[in-house]
Amino acid sequence: MAHWLFKSEPDSFSFDDLVGKGEAGQEWDGVRNYQARNNMRAMKVGERGFFYHSNEGKAVVGIVEVIAAAHPDSTDTTGQWECVDLKAVMPVERPVTLAAAKAEPRLAGMALTGNSRLSVQPVTDAEWAVVCEMAGVAP
After folding, report:
1. EVE domain spans which residues (predicted)?
2. Does pTM surpass 0.90?
3. Class of the domain covering 3-135
4. Which of 16, 92, 96, 107 has the fewest CB atoms inside 10 Å of its own CB, making it the most exposed?
């Protein structure tokens, strides 16, 4: 099963906002990058990802789960953008900052440490295990 990382500016939509949506979750809408869209197209229901606060905090703060496969983004009027739906699973015990991820040699190849601008990124099984270890959660 694949793993992912979803980035959001906490002043626009935070992990706590997703927690507040409960089991119904939230459309991961507004993404306007082809690579990020294609990543969402590859996702399957039940796959998990990290919720990353960008700009402010710059840290992995929670675990999320894909609850709906890629479908048309309700905020798109052109018909070319898709999104998945996510729900919050749990906060991490210890937020994993971008600086900490970059300092961890086992994460040298992680998309986050090399292409921190991409809003929806794949995470390898090995990277998932390392970040979970750093965050104090079971992989």
Report:
1. 2-134
2. yes
3. alpha beta
4. 16
